[in-house]
Amino acid sequence: MAKRDFYEVLGVAKSADEKEIKRAYKRLAMKYHPDRNQGDKESETKFKEIKEAYEILSDAQKRAAYDQYGHAAFEQGGFGGQGGGGFGGGADFGDIFGDVFGDIFGGGRRQQRAARGSDLQYNMELTLEEAVRGVSKEIRIPTLEICDKCHGSGAKEGTSAETCSTCHGAGQVHLRQGFFTVQQACPTCHGRGKIIKEPCSKCHGDGRVERYKTLSVKIPAGVDTGDRIRLSGEGEAGEHGAPSGDLYVQVHVRQHNIFERDGNDLYCEVPINFAIAALGGEIEVPTLDGRVKLKIPAETQTGKMFRMKGKGVKSVRSNAIGDLMCRVVVETPVKLNEKQKELIQQLGESFGGKSGEKNTPRSKSFLDGVKKFFDDLTK
Ligand SMILES: [Zn+2]
Ligand SMILES: [Zn+2]
């Protein structure tokens, strides 16, 4: 897909000033922010696009390069990201949100010398009942916390970090690259602006230590697979006292052996015997709140769906309540005794001949169709 023009993405004129660009970005970022549009892929893509456009247009140098060379100015690794917190935790805790959620509103990374902590993801399996009713769960997660020995500075007790002599504390250096000058993280201090001569013995200069923490997570009623709950500030601690990342609890609902869920509706299949199907009657069907009675009208065919209003799932996002859809399946009787066999035999015989045709309209129309098919073949 061709990349859209950055000005177009933000909906501003080419001549827009910094303030206008910032305002447009904030407005759009709010609108398409993933937290407000959970599970909406399109919003997520839009949000990334907006963020990228803002990153370029809010930086005078990058903007100038873009105005002159268009998207080509940033291809082949050009500016790249400045990294989002570096070291992803365990195998299941990759920093997949770091890039999207890294710097949300206000400020951004530029003024922030040390990187914000990585966001963490925790995959939580729930039963359907838990997801529908809501539940509180304790989780144990490996995370990085601020080192209590150096209070996050990374420097040994009694010493402190020194200002980097290469970048004079800016954390950035300017390099000429082809047509223009680019800003890069300082190679001496890796963007921190400070050098630690004597690192803290506990965290080895990182300012953070690994620790397991237990958190109680409240899952709201109505969540479904793909929903995500954000625990602000419960991600990894930032480097050298920078803000912590967030923790995202990703919900996965296990398969249920009776109900299948589709949005707010639940589906289930209920077998009925063939006498009830023919003559009508009342059966019991399961719902999440217990058994309820369901009237089956006479002459019910197999596969018929009955809708039970309001017996589905209450939406996590609104007051909407789904329905329970019961699909009845007529069961062929098995292990018949002699008497039963005899009765069915008689019933079957009564279906034969012209007079029985009206009892089996579907068979009749099918047989008529078959007959026509063969007649046509031999014509
Ligand atoms: Zn330390
Ligand atoms: Zn430096």
UniProtKB/TrEMBL annotation:
Zn(2+) 2 binds at residues 164, 167, 186, 189. CXXCXGXG motif repeats lie at residues 147-154, 164-171, 186-193, 200-207. Keywords: Chaperone, Cytoplasm, DNA replication, Metal-binding, Repeat, Stress response, Zinc, Zinc-finger. A zinc finger (CR-type) spans 134-212. InterPro entries: DnaJ, DnaJ_C, DnaJ_domain, DnaJ_domain_CS, HSP40/DnaJ_pept-bd, HSP_DnaJ_Cys-rich_dom, HSP_DnaJ_Cys-rich_dom_sf, J_dom_sf. It comes from the Bacteria. Signal peptide: none annotated. Pfam families: DnaJ, DnaJ_C, DnaJ_CXXCXGXG. The gene is dnaJ. Residues 5-70 form the J domain. Homodimer. This is Chaperone protein DnaJ. Participates actively in the response to hyperosmotic and heat shock by preventing the aggregation of stress-denatured proteins and by disaggregating proteins, also in an autonomous, DnaK-independent fashion. Unfolded proteins bind initially to DnaJ; upon interaction with the DnaJ-bound protein, DnaK hydrolyzes its bound ATP, resulting in the formation of a stable complex. GrpE releases ADP from DnaK; ATP binding to DnaK triggers the release of the substrate protein, thus completing the reaction cycle. The keyword Acetylation does not apply. One of its GO terms (cellular component) is cytoplasm.
